Amino acid sequence: MAKLILLLCFLGACTVSMANEVTVFKCTIKGVPTFSQTPCAKDAKVITLKNVNIMQTNALQSENALVIDTSVDDYLEVQQIERDIVKLELKIKQYQQEYAQKKQQVGYMTQDKANRLGADSIADAIATETAVLKQRFEPQIKQAQQQITALTQKKQQLNQQP
Question: Quick check: is 53 in a domain?
Answer without folding.
Answer: yes
